[in-house]
Design goal:
Elements (H helix, E strand, L loop, with lengths): L4 E3 L2 H11 L3 E6 L5 H14 L4 E6 L19 H10 L4 E3 L3 H4 L19 H4 L3 H16 L3 E5 L3 H13 L5 E5 L19 H19 L5 H10 L6 E9 L10 E11 L2 E11 L1
Parallel strand pairs: 1-4, 2-3, 2-5, 3-4, 5-6
Antiparallel strand pairs: 7-8, 8-9
Length: 280
């Protein structure tokens, strides 16, 4: 099996992309790759075809971690990640260090995410989405893809990236890919590896809550939230938020498409999840 080209610098990346000269799609990751990332890579390949170029970026972005978060302990198994990329037929892996991506130090000018950036995840993690959008914009402009693929598990991130590219007229198509789950419903996340066996069992309350909310949709928005909340009364699950919103994370509609979002701490691990809800 021929492995992907590994680019550590922007010059390496430019050379690899110039050599390819085909339509490309990028999957941005912080590494610690799992089946959810594989699904993104496969969707990218389907979009660009066998002759296209699939790019995976691997960069643990310090700008999106707040004080006391897990930046230092975030898993960085690069050789394992590279093997995953090879198995999925990725063409280019861009894995810069911090000095390469931020050569002038951490940027003084960042992208302001607007009001939504201070809600939900942004209310719990101030500044998080400014860091996310800044690195996404940089990586888009360095990889210059036709498509950029993001998982729906990070639904607020996906929504804000779409808003950023629309508002700033960035010439990239943003593609959402459905959340990948374990057989028991737990949404795949690189942070799941932090969970003890008991904590992992407790974490299933999040996906149960989403299923319960979806099952109550016929009774209206308040019933959706109440049914979901009833599944989150687990001693070891500390809920940050449980909210029903519209599909672009506007206030929830009375009927039509909606999105139920939950975030909670299980032990020392913070998990997020969401599900589409159809309010009849």
């Amino acid at each position: 099996m021929t492995g992907p080209v590994v680019a550590r610098t922007r010059d390496d990346l430019a050379d690899a992309l110039a050599a390819a000269e085909t339509v490309s799609a990028v999957v941005m990751t912080m590494g610690a790759l799992h089946e959810g990332h594989r699904a993104l890579m496969r969707a990218a390949r389907e979009l660009v075809g066998d002759d296209g170029t699939v790019i995976v970026t691997v960069f643990v972005n310090p700008l999106q971690f707040g004080a006391g978060e897990d930046f230092d302990r975030y898993p960085r198994p690069f050789e394992t990640d590279l093997a995953v990329c090879a198995e999925e037929g990725v063409d280019v892996v861009f894995a810069p260090d911090e000095a390469e991506l931020y050569p002038g130090g951490r940027p003084e000018v960042t992208i302001e995410p607007g009001p939504l950036g201070a809600e939900l995840e942004g209310a719990v993690r101030p500044g998080h989405f400014a860091g996310v959008l800044t690195v996404v914009a940089k990586l888009l402009n360095l990889t210059v893809p036709a498509y950029a693929l993001f998982g729906e598990k990070d639904y607020q991130q996906l929504t804000l990236v779409r808003r950023m590219t629309a508002d700033l007229e960035l010439p990239y198509e943003i593609v959402g890919v459905p959340t990948v789950r374990e057989d028991d419903g737990l949404a795949l996340s690189s942070r799941n590896r932090y969970l003890s066996p008991d904590e992992r069992t407790a974490a299933l309350a999040l996906s149960r809550a989403l299923r319960a909310g979806a099952g109550a949709a016929a009774s209206g928005p308040e019933a959706v939230v109440a049914a979901a909340a009833a599944e989150l009364t687990v001693d070891t699950v500390d809920v940050d938020y449980l909210e029903l919103r519209g599909p672009a994370l506007e206030p929830a509609p009375d009927h039509g498409p909606a999105r139920l979002l939950v975030a909670a701490r299980v032990g020392h691990t913070r998990l997020i999840d969401n599900a589409a809800i159809d309010l009849p």
